[in-house]
Amino acid sequence: LEFRIDDVPGLRVATRVTRNVVFTDDGRMPDRYYTGPLLLMGWTEGAKVDDPRGFAERRFNGNSLLVDPKLGELKATNVGGLNGFEAVGTGKHRHLGYSVASLVLVLYDENGVFIARGYSDSPNAEKNFTLFRTIISSFRRQDG
């Protein structure tokens, strides 16, 4: 990985692949029917973002797990010294049809783009988003 994330009680690493990491509640890789909290994070080296706000909004609306995504809030943020945007909203689970709350955070600099996607069932969204933000807030770049 080209970034570091601190261990935080509540979610466990399911896998690390190239520049990506997946967190689930039990540390197992989720399948299409997984219903627990899910946090996916990755760094894309060399990617450029010309319109950061629009990029974050498109990442939220182009969410492959959600059907009929509805963006609720889009706000500027800074994590680990990188500027970005956080998009929060809801949609329906593509395979199971229940209401899902989603958080998408995009951070960027001249070297690349970091994207975090968090998913929660709607009743537990506030608790899970707090957990996601705690994990994301420990983000820091690790150069080569």
Present the secondary structure layout.
Blueprint: E1 3-4, E2 12-17, E3 20-24, E4 38-45, H1 52-61, E5 66-79, E6 82-93, E7 99-109, E8 112-121, H2 125-137, E9 140-141
Gist?
By secondary structure, the protein is of the alpha+beta class.
Question: How would you characterize this protein structure?
Answer:
The chain has 144 residues and is of the alpha+beta class. The protein is 16% helix and 49% strand. It is built from two helices and nine strands, in the order E-E-E-E-H-E-E-E-E-H-E. The strands form two sheets. A seven-stranded antiparallel β-sheet has the order 2-3-4-8-7-6-5, sandwiched between helices. The longest helix is centred in the last third of the chain and has 13 residues. The termini are close together. 33% of the residues are buried.
